Amino acid sequence: MIQLYQFPWSPFCIAIRRIIEFGRVPHRIVNIPNGDRTLIWKVTRQRYYQVPVLKDGRNVIFETDDSSQVIAKYLDDKFALGLFSEEIRGLQFILWSWIEDRVETPGFKLNDIHYEEFVPKSDRLGFIRHKERKFGRGCLELWREQQLALLREFTAALLPFDQMLLAHPFLLGERPRFVDFDLYGMIGNFLYSGHYEFPVEHPRLAEWWQRMHRIQRDVPK
Ligand SMILES: N[C@@H](CCC(=O)N[C@@H](CS)C(=O)NCC(=O)O)C(=O)O
Fold this sequence. Notes:
221 residues, alpha+beta, Glutaredoxin, Glutathione S-transferase Yfyf (Class Pi), Chain A, domain 2, 2 domains, 4-stranded mixed beta sheet, 9 helices, 53% helix, binds glutathione
């Protein structure tokens, strides 16, 4: 059975989890502590320490760079999910680059400022240290002060996606593609703390969110 190593609020893990559920793929979730990557390090045979990581029998799958999408492509290929068709290849690349930057950056900061509510006490030192080493000392306090501006930034970054839904139910047409799941993951991370509502400025995207939340592919005949 496929195993997904993750932590539950990670935007990239939420995206992969939803793809797995969409594909009705039997799986097991393995939650790992944010601050202790020992298990990931072991499973990947000392090659990777981030999440998500997928284990499928003897295959261990993880990203090779920020834009590789190796895990999603593996699932797409193995379960014929139709998420990466040739006619949308370049377009999806441009879109996920935006999604994983312009949407993800304000989104994860807005969620992270509530970390005490979802990171267990034993893991908080590692969490703060990791954030401060990456984004500078006092970054979490700074993001708290910037909360309103970050909310505006997050909402503005979603506008083109709301517009993409003017003529069809998913971002690139009649069926969900990888970018739908990617955006779903980033928004899922933003909503994770429970402190934010879906931005009211984007009603079409709010409806899409509900669709993406429960969609499962048709059972192959
Ligand atoms: N491009 C990678 C990014 C993965 C990533 O940034 N994972 C974060 C969690 S959201 C992580 O493990 N960060 C911990 C670290 O870098 O030490 C992907 O799409 O999977």
